[in-house]
Write a structure and sequence with these properties.
226 residues, alpha/beta, globular
Length: 226
Amino acid sequence: MSDRTVGISPAILVLGIGNLLWADEGFGVRAVEAMQRDWVMPSNVQLLDGGTQGIYLVDRVRTADVLVVFDAVDYGLPPGTMKRVEGDEVPRFLGAKKMSLHQTGFQEVLALADMLGDYPKHLLLIGVQPVELDDFGGSLRPQVKARIFPAIAMALEYLTQFGVVAQRRGDSSADTHDLPHPSLGLTAYETGRPAAEVACRIGDERVLASLSGRAHHPRDPHGERQ
C-alpha cells in the first residue's frame, strides 16, 4: 500500500477503461474524456484513457494513492443505472459478470499492484449498466451517455475529501496526451460512422470473412465468445 510523505498531496489517478468500438463499452473512456475537456484538475490528479490496456496499466496504478475508475459494468441492474462501489468490493464487481477481456485484465492489474505492495489506499469504481454492447463501431446509447456528467460529478465530489478543487475549463487548451486521439473524439466518432449498409455492425467483415466455412464461436450479447 502506498505510504507517501505526510503533507504532500496524494497522487490521484482517474482512469477510464473500456473499448470505444463496442457501443456502451466505451463509457469509461468517454467519461474521462469529458472530464478532461470540461475541468482543469490540480497537478496531482492525472486523467487517463486506459482503454483495454489491461496489465500494461499496472505501473500507473502502483503510483496512485487514490484511484477512481469509470467503466461499463454488468451489475445486473436496469440498463443505464449508475452505481458506485468503493474499496475492497471494486475487484469483485469488475469481474463477477465480465463483459469483455479488459475487465479480467484490470482485476489482474489490481492484484499485481497489491502483490507488489503498491495498492491504492483509496479506490472508487463508478460504473454504468450498459444498454448495448454488440454493435461494432457504435457509440454510447442515450441512457448511458446521459450518465457521463453525473458520473463526473460523483467523482469530483469524492475527490474533494482529498483536497481536490477542480475548476471549470474556460478554453480549449486541454492536454489530450493521455486521452483518445482527436479522430476518436465522441463527435467525430459518431458523425463519421458509415451507414449500416456499408459498415458491419457485429464485427470486422474482413475477419468474419476469413472465418467463413470454418467452425467458429459468435459473440454473445455481452461481447464474449460463446
